[in-house]
Request: fold
Amino acid sequence: MLPFDYAKAKNENDAIDRVRVPKAAFVAGGTTLIDLMKLNVMLPAMLVDINGLPLDKIETLPEGGLRIGAMVRNSDMAHHPEVIKRFPVLSQAVLAGASPQLRNMATTGGNLMQRTRCYYFRDTAYVCNKRQPGSGCAAMDGFNRIHAVLGGSDQCIATHPSDMAVALVALDAIVHIKGPSGGERKVPAADFHLLPGKTPHKETVVEPGELITYVTIPNTKFAAQSAYVKLRDRASYEFALASAGAALELQGNKIHAARLALGGVATKPWRSLEAERVLTGAAADEKTFHTAAEAAMKSAVAHKYNGFKIELAKRAIVRALASAAQSKADGRS
Amino acid sequence: MSIAVGSRVSRKDGHLKVTGQARYAADHPMKNVAHAVAVCSTVAKGRVASIDSADAEKAAGFLAIIHHGNAPKMFRPVNNFMTASKPGEIRVVFEDDKVHYAGQYVAVVVAETLQQAQHAAGLVKITYETMPPLVETEQAMSTVYDPSEFFGEKLKAQRGDPAGALQSAAVKHEAEYFTPNEHHNPMEPSASMAAWDGEDLTLWETTQWVVGARNTVAETLGISEERIHIISPFIGGGFGCKGFIWPHSVMSAIAAKKTGRPVKLNLTRKQMFSGAGHRSETRQKVLLGATKEGKLTAVQHDTLVQTSTVDEFVESCGNTSRFLYSSPNMSIAHHAVRVNIATPTPMRAPGENPGLFAMESAMDELAYKLNIDPVQLRIINHSDKNEHTNQPWSSKYLKECYQTAAEKFGWAKRNPKPGSMRDGKYLVGWGMATATYPGMRSPGAAKVRILQDGSAQVISATQDMGGGTYTTMTQVVADITGIPVDRIRPELGDSRMPPAPVSGGSMTTASVLPAVNRAATDALKKIVQAAIADEKSPFHGKKEDEVVAGGGRVYLKGSSPESGSTYAQVLASKNQAAVEGESTLQPGQEREKYAFQSWGAQFVEVNVDPEIAKVTVSRVVSAFDIGKVINRKTVESQAYSGIIMGIGMALMEHTVYDHRDGGIVNSNLTDYAVPVNADIHSIEVDFIDKPDPYIDPYIGARGAGEITVTGVAAAIANAIYHATGRRVRELPITPDKLL
Reply:
C-alpha cells in the first residue's frame, strides 16, 4: 500500500471538486478499493470519502419506479420492502453476493464500480492489460476457470463480478452520473459497463471527476415477476461461476416481454437480447427456456479451463426463467 | 468415582475467547516494537540476481532489511523429529541466492509501524535470473523416485502375492484417484514476535509445538536452547501448518537482533500459501481383488505425490491400506516427484485422509461390482488384527461404529440402485466410508500444584489448538483431587513448562493426560506428606499409608473425608504456599505387543439438484471409537470440525499453481473455497467410549483430532454416485464435474 491523502467530501460538488486531482479516487464502502490498495493493485494518491453524502435513501418515484441513492448500503437495498416485493430479482441478487458484513458496507455506486476477481489482475507479479495497458493478459493461457466466455477480447477475459448489476440490467435500470460542470447524465445499466475490446482498463462510462448519484428503476410490468439464480462453488460468500437474472411479463402462459441478464460468464453484466427475442411472444415453458438458453450462449467462446461455464450458464438461465415464471407477480407494477 | 472426565465440561478458555481476551501471537502488546514484513519471490526457480533497497531505505520509518547478502550465520537444524528439532524446510532462510519456489522468502524489511514496513517492503526491487520451473507432476516425471520412510514407517510393503491373487480374483476393481494440493488455512495466520534480552530470546509464537520451536530455532541460530523461551498460549487453528517450525520464527529473531528492538512478524494470508506448508496432490492407483462372496484376496495401493526440491515430505496414502482390511495379499508403494513448490507438511491426517478417499471410494466401487452392501463388504473384510505387523489391536470397536452410525442414519432403508432415491426434484444419495487413524503416544510431562487457597494449577508444555486440552487436563486433575474444575487453572503453551510432544498425530490426549493423572496423584501424596510433617496437624506422625488425600480433603484412612482437613487447611497450618506433583511418562512395551488404531464410520446423505449440478451434504452421521471420551462437548466439536473439513475437501478445496511459472493462483480465502455456514447442515456424531486398556495405564484415550476428517470425502463421493450414477474420482467435486 502506498501512502495516500484523504479528504471527507462535504457535498456532491465538493466531492467532484476534490476528486479532480491526479490519482484520486472516491471511497465509499471500500470493500473493493481498500482490498486492492492492500494488494498494490490500485494505488490512489488521494481518497475522497463520500460516506457522508446524503445519497442513502430509497424513494418511490411518482410513476412507480424506485430511486436508489448511490450510498444506499447493499443490505438496506436488499431488505427494502419495495425491492423485495416489486423487484425481487434485485433483492435476490444482492443477497446472493458477498457476506452480510460486506453488504453492510458496500454501496449501490461502489457495487457498480467493483473490479474483477481475475486472479492475475489481483496479483502484481503477473501482466494484466487492465492493470497495465499493453502489458498482456496472463489469464488467456493461464488458469482461466473463473473467466468469461462472453464478451471477451484478445486483451482480456476477466468477468465482471457484480450480482447487483446483473439484476439492474434485467430491470432496465438507469445510472445517474454527475459531472464536474454540474451536469447530470443518465446511462442505462446495460450500457454502463464497457466491453474490454482494446481498452480493458476502461471498465465503465464514468469519466474522471464524475460521481454516481442514483440508480433509478422504472416501473415495468416484468419487474415483479423476476428471479435471480446464482451457481457457484459453495452455497454462500462466493462469486458466480454462472448466474442469471430473469424478468418476465406474462399474459396467461405467453411471454409478452422478457429480460435476461447474465453474471459470472461475461466481461460485463450481460444482457442477452438473443434470448429475449426467443422468449418474447413464446409460451412460458421449459422448451422455450431451453431454446432461450441456447440462444444466449450461442456466441460463447471457451478457454482452456472455463468451457463448463457455457453449459452451466444454460442451466442457470433455464432455472432463473422457470423461477421467474413461477414467482407470484405483485399486482402493483 | 470419575465425575469430570467423560462429562460435558465447557471450555476453560471459552470465556476468554468469546470476549476477545485470549491473546494470540500477533495480539501481544510490546513496548517499542518494530514491525517486519517478508518479501517473497515472484519466480519459482532461479536465483536472486540483485536486491535494490535504496528506495525502501529512504522510506519513512525504515529500520532494516535482511536478505541472503547480509543475513547472520545460521545453521541447518539436525532435523530429527524424535529430538524435537524439525524445521518445515531444511534449507535455512536466506541461506543463499537460490530460489526454489514462488513465495520463498528473499528478504525481510523492518520498520517502525506495520504500514511503514509494508510500504518499504513494496519498494524493494528484486531482479531474478529465472529458470523454467517444474510445477506439474507430468512436467516433473524425470525426477520421480521412491522415498523410503515416513516418520520411521517404510513406504513400501508387501504381503503374499498380490499380483498373482489379482490375476485369479473372481472380481476385480482397478481405478485411479486424484486429490489436489490443499492448504490448511487456519483462521489465524502464523505470526512471531521476538524480543532479545542480552543473549536470551523470547518468541511469542503460534505453534503446535513449543518444545520443537525452541529446539529448532536454537539450532538454526546456533545458541543454546536454554536461552530461548517460546510462548504460545492460544492457537487459532493449525491443522498441521504450525507443527513443524517455519522460517518466520527465525526471521523475527534475526530482525530483532539486527534492529535491537522487539520485532513482530505476521504472515499475510497469501504468505500462508507458501510459508507454512501444504498437502501435496496425490495420484493413487488402487487395485482390489475379491471372491464372489466379497472376501478381499488382494489389495494394491500405489501412490504418486509431489515433494519440493529442498526437502522431503511424502503424503503416505498407502500405509493404512496395509492393515485397513483383512487380505492375504497386499502391496503398497509410494513415489514422489520434485517440483518447484514449497515443501509439503502434515495436514490433518496426512496420508490417511487422501489415502482413505481412494481406498474407500474403491471399496464402494467393489461393493457395486459384487452387489454387496458397502457396510457388509467392510464387515466381511474386517481385520481382527493388524495383518501388517501381526499384532493384536489394543482395542477395536469398528463393527460397533458401523452399527451405531448405520442405525442412526437409517441405512437399512437404502435402495442401493443409483438414482433410485428422490426427494422431490432432488436426487438423494447415501454413501459411507470407514474412518481410521493411528493411536499414537509420545513421552509427556506435567506438573500439578495444589495451592494454599485450595485451588490448583496444572501445567504442561503442550498446546491447545482449539481441541480442548486446557479443559481436559483440568478434568483429570479435578477427578483425582476433588478440586472443582472452576478452581483449577490450566497452563500450557510455554517451552519452560514440563515438556510435551507436538500437538500433532492426534497424540496430545494420550501423551499428556496420563502424566497429568500421575502428577495430580503425586501432588496428593505431597500434601499427605506435608500434613504428616506438620506438628500442628492432627495427622502429625502418622504413616503415609494411614492418611488419604482426595475429594478435596486429607483424612485418616477408614474415617469419613469430612472428618479431615481441607487442602487449604493443611497448607495454612504449615504456612506453605503449595505442594507440587510431577510426572513424566512414556510409552513402553505395550507398543511392541499391540497395534493402536482409532476407528470410525462416516455416513453421508447428499441432495443433488441435477439440473444445476448442485450438491448439498444434507446429513452426516458418524460414530468413532477413540477409546475413552474425556470431554464429550469438546470432542463433538472436534468431530464437527473434521467432518466440515472433509466436506470442504470433497467439494471445494484445491490450490492452483500456475503451470507456467509456479505462482499460486488462488492464495486467498475467496478463491480458495472452504465451507461456509450455508454449506453445513445436519451433523450427528457419536462415540463408542470404551477405554483403550493398553494405550496407557491411567486414562485409556486415543486422540480425536484427525480421525474425524478421514473417510468423509469418500463417503460424499460414494453418496454422489448413489444419487447420480456418476463416479467422480478426482477431488474436489465442483459443479463442472457433475454437468
User: Anything to note?
Assistant: Chain B touches chain A at residues 42, 60, 102, 115, 118-119, 122, 611-614, 616, 651-652, 656, 658-660, 663, 665-666, 670-671, 673, 675-679, 734-736, 739 (CB under 8 Å). The CA atoms of residues 402 and 408 of chain B lie 10 Å apart.
